[in-house]
Amino acid sequence: MDPKLDESAIRKVVEDVLQRLGQSKAAQSTPAVTRGNRRSSIPSRTTQSNRRRPQGIFDDAYDACEAARSAFLQLREAGLDGRNRVVRIIKELCAQKANEWGKLELEETKIGRLDHKIEKLRIIDLVPGVEWLRPYGMSGDHGITLEEYTPFGVIGAITPITHSIPTLSSNVISIVAAGNAVVFNPHPGGARCAIVAVRTFNEAIHRELGIENLICCIEHPTLESFAALCKCENVPLLVVTGGPGVVNAAMRSGKRAICAGPGNPPVVVDESADIENAVTGVIKGAAFDNNLLCIGEKEVYVVDAVFNTFVAELKRQGAVALTDTQLDRLSAAAFSQEADGGGCSHAVLNRDFVGQDPPVLAEHAGVQVNRGTELLFAETPADHVFVIEEQMMPMVPVVRVGDIEEGIAYAVEAEHGYKHSSMIHSRNVDNMTAMARALDTTLFIKNGPCMAGLGLGGEGYLSYSIATVTGEGITTPKTFTRTRRCVMVDNLRIY
Prior knowledge:
Shape: globular
């Protein structure tokens, strides 16, 4: 493939992403990256002095990658004990700084809820570390074979605005536990808080292990820095957590990419469900951080036999119903219609509404609700914009369906084949099986809230990057390794 075409594709896709995020045209102006994976035509602003900063913050992506390569070599000498110590440092700092960093992230991004920003940092301890990398041994008549997991070296990572510090921290644990260093190009809307975390992590790592710049971050992330990271010869692997635009750009980069893409998780409630438990789960999942979670309950299909009971229980547990008129007003404000290249129109989400509190959404709907309200809901048809679009707001559409078959069919449509997450509330094993087969999602939760799929109320472990697009699933340290086989032939067994 012609590298110029590759770079052009990356620029085009990421420019579209940045435009929708409100970045200025000046920040999007990107010079061509030269052949041979070397520097861009704009001279680096980085001086020799700040290349050596142990805090890991860089203006230039190539300088960051070079520093990370040096750190990787130092980490390799530190062995498994060194990796374990880094993991411990990250987890301890996330717990200690949860309140401070939660406030910092909310102040910068202005989306979500403070209590949940804090909680997302406190639970970082649930992310698995070096213990996940157990070697596999084989012994037989022809000798002994050992398969173990080895690092790639330097990994380039893209983080989202929705969970800036938590995603970064989770990725650091998995990537470093696997033996790698990492360079982050964070979402511009969450870059300042990401830089604070990276600087703090690096200072602690340097104090304890003497390793500089194990975690690197681009101070002013732009289209240029993203393209440079994709092209840097020191980066063999990319991990991307974000929307379809940045995922597509990474997939076109020519590098191996681990991509955690979008989702629009449906919930189905059948007539056998424990309705009180189902409603508790829907409110807990959809209200968490104002529905910013990619795994969060985004639309609910309830069979007609229990629909009225379900709605009554939503109200009893504090969710507020919108009337048709109120829903229309909110929908008109939260979405616009734009023409595509074929002359058809499609809904476009107003990003100003993402992650906003229920009272803010209710005001746009023309109604006032109590400040403590966690969730809004409304009965909608199956083709309503709140059903079809991944809206990331604490307003859940509830769709009445005739039976489980219809509910599953609608759920398949709304999930869009992302293969991300889905939920069912049912006591009928046949219905659970039918939905699991029909949607084939990476996470499938039965009779619990979405976060039960990540070890929060259900069995399992935590990660903030769920690689649905490229198929790795919930990322672990093993995700960021190569498998290496070492073979010793014959005459090695005692028996």
